[in-house]
Amino acid sequence: MAHLSQIELLLPELRAYARSICGAAESPDDLVQDAVERALRHETRPERIEELRPWMFRVIRNLHYDELRKRRVRREYIAAHKRLMDESDGTSSAGRDVLVRLAFEKLPPETREVLFLIDIMGFKYAEAAEIMNVPTGTVMSRISRARKELLRRVNGDDQDEEQVKQTP
C-alpha cells in the first residue's frame, strides 16, 4: 500500500499535467484515473517517489498520445471510407461495403495483413515493417500491390481470372 500513498501524494501534480496536455473536450481526470489504474496493476513500477513521479508523467503522456493516435486512425478510416463511397459507381453504400469486405476476405493473408496495418490501423510504413519483420521498402511495395489487387477485386475484375482458371 506504500505505492498507493505515494501515488496519492502525486495526484495534484498528475491532474495538473493531464489538464495541461488535454484539450477542452477531453477529460484530464479520466486520463489520471487510467494512469493510476495502470500503475497499480504494473508489478515493476518504481519504488521511490523520485522515480515514480517521472514514470507516472510518462504513463499519462503515453496514454494521452495513444488515445490521440486512435482518434486519428478512426478519423482517417472514416474519411477513407467516405471517399470510397463517394467514388463508388452507383452501387449502394451498404452494397459497396459488402463488396469491399468480401474482396478483402478473398485476398491472401499477407495482402490482408499489410492493408489492415496501413490502411485500417493507420500504422506508418516503418511501424508496419517492424511488426511484419520486413524492410520498409517491402511494406511499400506490398501495400501498393495490395491496394491495386483489392481495387481490382472490388471492381469485379477477379471474375475474369476465375473463369480463365476454370477453362480447360
UniProtKB/TrEMBL annotation:
Residues 8-72 form the RNA polymerase sigma-70 region domain. Signal peptide: none annotated. Belongs to the sigma-70 factor family. ECF subfamily. Residues 100-150 form the RNA polymerase sigma factor 70 region 4 type domain. InterPro entries: RNA_pol_sigma-70-like, RNA_pol_sigma-70_dom, RNA_pol_sigma70_r2, RNA_pol_sigma70_r4_t2, RNA_pol_sigma_r2, RNA_pol_sigma_r3/r4-like, WH-like_DNA-bd_sf. The keyword Transcription applies. NCBIfam families: sigma70-ECF. Keywords: Sigma factor, Transcription, Transcription regulation. This is RNA polymerase sigma factor. It comes from the Bacteria.
